[in-house]
C-alpha cells in the first residue's frame, strides 16, 4: 500500500529531475560552451573560463548521477553549491570589466540550473534554493558595483537576466514539487476509495451472512415455539436443550461485532455454524478486535486441530480466540471422544504449536502462533 | 484467608445492589442468591440512579442499560470506594480492560457465568481479594497498552490457558505445575494489573490485602510502594 505511494512519488521525482538535468545540460553545452569557444579571444583569462566550464560539467555529472540513483541531490550538496558559486566568481574574473554584463560572462545566468540539480528534493530545498540564487545575484551585483558597471542599461539587463533565470529555476522546482505532491494525493485518494469499496463489500457480505443466519435461527425459534404451543413439556431435557442452543446462537449473533471479516474468524464461524446444525451447544465469547496479519500457512496450522475437535464434538464445545499484535491462540474445548491426542506439543513448520489435553470426557486443543 | 484486613472487611452477609434492565436477568440473579445465606440482594433497578442511596458492599452492573453502554460511568461509581462488578455479555478484551482500568473490581461474562462462579466472585470482591474471571484473564493476558502490568511469562500463560481451557486443573497439567501454583499466578496477575492501572480506592484495598496475605511484596508494585510509605511496616 505505502509502496504504491512511494512508487508514484519516486516516478515523479525521477522524471522531473531528469527534466532539470536535460535543461542544465542543454544550457551548458548549447550556450555556455558556445560563448566560451566563440568568445575565447574576448576573455581576459580564457583558460580560467574553460576550467570553470569543465568544473561546472564535473559538478553537474555528480549531481545528475545522484539524482538518477537517489532521486535527490548529492549528500554534499551544500559544499558543492559553494564550489559552484566559486566558479561563478571565476567566470566573472575571467572576463574583462566591459564584458561583465555581456554574452561571454555565462556563469551567473547558468549556475542557477546547477543549483536546482544539487538542491533537488532535499528536506529544506526551498530555503536552500532561495539562498543559493540570492548569493548568485548578490555576487554579480557586487562585481558590477566593483567594476563601476552601474549604468541604466547594465542594471536593466542585470535585472532582466536575474528575474528571468530565478523565475524559471525556482518556478521549475516549485512546479515539480507541486506536481509530485498532487500525484501522491491522487494515489492516496485512490487507495482510500479502494479500501472503502473493500470495506463496503465486506460489510455487505457480513450483513447478508447475518441475515441468512437470523433467517435460520428464526426457523428454529418458530419451530420451538410451535412445539411449546402444541404442548411440548418445558421440563423435558431435550426441549430445554434445544431452547438453550437457540438462545446461545441468538446471543452470539447479537454480540458479534466485527465489521470486516477476518479469514480465521470466518473459517471458525463456518465450523461453529455446522456444529450448531448438528445440535452441538457451542459457546464462543466475542473474538475481540481485528487479529494480526498472519504469515502464509499459519492460519491453516492454527485452525486444523481446533477445528477437528469442534467438528467431532458430540454435544458441546467452547471456542476461544485470543490475540495480541504478534500472538494468536485458538482453542477448542469439546466433548470429542474420537480425536487422537498427542501427549507432547506438536510443532508445525510454520511455528504454530498445538497442545492437546483430555480431562473428564473433554478434550482441550490449543494452537498458538507467536510472531517474531 | 481469614486475616483481619485494613480495608474494612465485610461482616455479615454481603449486600449487593443490582443495576440491570432485563427482568429475566434480575429474576435469575435473585434466584441464584435466594438459597445463599452469605449474599443478599438489597437493591435493584434498571438505572444507576435507581439504586443510588442504598448502601451495598458490591454493585453488580450491567453495561448495556436500555441500549446505552455505561462504560464511562464506572470510574465515577468506583471513585467513592464502591466495589463494582460488571456483569455483561460484552466480553471483548477491550471492553473488559476499559472497565477494569476505570476501577471495577471484577468482570463477570454473562455468556459463561454460573451461579457458583458468580457468587464466588462477589464474595472475593467483597473481601477485597483478587478475583479473576475468564474474560478478565484473557483481557489482562493480551493487554499491550502502555501501562500494562509486568507479568511473568508463566503468569501470562496461566491466564491465557485458564481462559481457553476447561479448568485450572487442566492448566496445571498443561504447565506441569500444581493447581495451587496456577491459582497463585492468576491472583498475582490480577493484583499486578490493579497496581498498573489507574489508581482507584477499590484497587488500593485489593493491593493491601494481597500484600497482607503474602501474595506479593510491596516493592513488586509501584503503586503500593507509595501506600506503604505512609505506613511503613517497621515503624511501631
From TrEMBL, chain A:
Keyword Membrane attached: yes
Keywords for this protein: Membrane, Transmembrane, Transmembrane helix
Transmembrane segments: 12-31, 43-65, 129-149, 155-174
Entry protein name: Uncharacterized protein
Automatic annotation (TrEMBL), chain B:
Keyword RNA-binding: no
InterPro entries: CheY-like_superfamily, RNA_pol_sigma70_r4_t2, Sig_transdc_resp-reg_C-effctor, Sig_transdc_resp-reg_receiver, WalR-like, WH-like_DNA-bd_sf
GO molecular function: DNA binding; sigma factor activity
Chain positions with 4-aspartylphosphate modification: 62
Every Response regulatory domain range: 15-125
Biological process terms in GO annotation: DNA-templated transcription initiation; phosphorelay signal transduction system
Keywords associated with the record: DNA-binding, Phosphoprotein, Sigma factor, Transcription, Transcription regulation
SMART domains with a match to the protein in the record: REC
Family membership: Belongs to the sigma-70 factor family. ECF subfamily.
Protein name as catalogued: Response regulator transcription factor
